[in-house]
């Protein structure tokens, strides 16, 4: 008993192991391949086998990573969510909203074109719309946990849960506004900042 307790593996810290990073990179490659094909052919006319071939793998391997072809785009959405959650976690209690905005939008424009292309597809592709909304459903508790940590709480309370919901909705609407507009009036970064400022102000009057 004593030996078993003493030889327990330590908790992982720092960067994930190479194999996990490689899996994440592979999933992202599949997501980008799927978006390219969905844009070129439409979701209905794109097969899982074609996505796999575009990503340089077998269909059998593809199914190990994803339950259906629409879910192949989730890693592209997940990357943005992880970036935003990390920004909230690094937002110190002595910093204001302007510092938060700077953290959230920095480096977030890397996949702007891919993201906007994908979100445009969600307007006419119900399967992709479901994945887009699911990504935001998963994001909200992650945002709430980050805000609770900033506030020194053991877990999210009503206030941090509502704040997380406001941030989540603001980000989703900003991206959709930019993606669906016939002539977008500003950059996605500017739209994101404006949406978060509106959420921060709350209701007036």
From TrEMBL:
InterPro entries per the UniProt record, alphabetical: Homeodomain-like_sf, HTH-type_TetR-like_transc_reg, HTH_TetR, MftR_C
Keyword set, alphabetical order: DNA-binding, Transcription, Transcription regulation
Cited SUPFAM superfamilies: Homeodomain-like
Stretches assigned to the HTH tetR-type domain: 24-84
Keyword Transcription regulation carried by entry: yes
Organism, as annotated: Lentzea cavernae
DNA-binding region location: 47-66
Name of the protein this chain belongs to: TetR family transcriptional regulator
Pfam families xref list: TetR_C_14, TetR_N
Coiled-coil regions, chain positions: none
Region Disordered, annotated ranges: 1-21
Statement: the UniProt record of this protein carries the keyword Transcription regulation: yes
